[in-house]
Amino acid sequence: MSDGGPIGVLGAGAWGTALANMLASDGRDVRLWARSADLAETINRERRNEHYLPDAELHETITATGDIAAMSECCALLVVTPAQHMGSVLTQMPSFPRDLVLCSKGIEAATGRMMNEVARAAAPDSAIAVLSGPTFAHEVAAGLPTAITLACSGGEEQWDRLAPAIARSTFRPYYSDDVIGAEVAGAVKNVLAIACGVVNGLALGQNARASLIARGYAEMLRFGEAVGASRETLAGLCGMGDLVLTCTSTASRNFALGKALGEGQSLGEVMHGRRTVAEGAHTAPILAQLAQEKGISMPIVRAVVALLGGKEPRDIVAQLLARPLTSEAAL
Ligand SMILES: NC(=O)C1=CN([C@@H]2O[C@H](COP(=O)(O)OP(=O)(O)OC[C@H]3O[C@@H](n4cnc5c(N)ncnc54)[C@H](OP(=O)(O)O)[C@@H]3O)[C@@H](O)[C@H]2O)C=CC1
Ligand SMILES: O=C(CO)COP(=O)(O)O
């Protein structure tokens, strides 16, 4: 672990706040950056993030700040902004700790960059790791048992620094060196969770949902292998684990978005006045584009793009079902 300073968490949405609370659960000092100085002040005063995680009482050793420069002093930094804003937030930091642990799940829509590419461009001297798995924020904040992939670009040496800083009695990271695999898994599963929500919203049954998870996983494997992810990673916590979690629960914002669309609401209606992020909606179009450029078949991802574009959910399902019969192993 890098010497000195608190552990930093960049982003005080639900996940950043939950991670901060988990890290502070053993009395360690944690510095939490909120974009809004008012929210930082309220968190320090009330020991609660009323906007994003209202039910969790936050440990005393968390100090929230609206001063992003103060995050440069942290011994390591967990980056927990929405994927589309990671680049703009990181470029506001004057300097960086040795280790950046990326916790956002998505692909940068404007450029097609994965989060590690965004972070490397901003902080070329830092070592990048990715923390991703089946982890609803409210459960982690409540101290419920959680296992997660910690993929370290710096290999076991970086793991030896980070694992003791991140692991707690109920929060259990597993080592990987497959950064791209962990990133693909988290980005793709959010899109698939929207599709599974639609199945739920249209009341198409549990068989359909299980089929969609399995065929969606096949899409994740095809895309992942094309960009250098290992199958093992995609079968693990950050891949299959997170797919199962978010494709089966209305606690997932992505699943809930798909469900609302399946029930007949428009995207505008669902997103109106909403503070929280549904990453799959931002990632789906760029993922479909990247897949097309690479010649990778991702019909479920394309269906989600059509849905977000306003196409009738029942028509999209009918089109998916009408495709030619093929081998389960077809590429
Ligand atoms: N919630 C969860 O259970 C999990 C989430 N994640 C991932 O963590 C990442 C963050 O999600 P989460 O914490 O849930 O976020 P939330 O949906 O809880 O909150 C949205 C966050 O985005 C911030 N934000 C909005 N606009 C901007 C902007 N222009 N620049 C910078 N920040 C902005 C908000 O700050 P402000 O209040 O200032 O607008 C707020 O902190 C996502 O990639 C998500 O996929 C991963 C695992 C679990
Ligand atoms: O990534 C998550 C759990 O692992 C959270 O999923 P949602 O963003 O869909 O709520």
UniProtKB/TrEMBL annotation:
Catalytic residues, chain numbering: 189
Residues covered by the Glycerol-3-phosphate dehydrogenase NAD-dependent N-terminal domain: 7-153
Single GO biological process annotation from the record: glycerol-3-phosphate catabolic process
PROSITE patterns: NAD_G3PDH
Chain positions recorded as substrate binding sites: 105, 253-254
Record's subcellular location: Cytoplasm
Reactions performed catalytically: sn-glycerol 3-phosphate + NAD(+) = dihydroxyacetone phosphate + NADH + H(+); sn-glycerol 3-phosphate + NADP(+) = dihydroxyacetone phosphate + NADPH + H(+)
Family per record: Belongs to the NAD-dependent glycerol-3-phosphate dehydrogenase family.
Name of protein: Glycerol-3-phosphate dehydrogenase [NAD(P)+]
Encoding gene, per UniProt annotation: gpsA
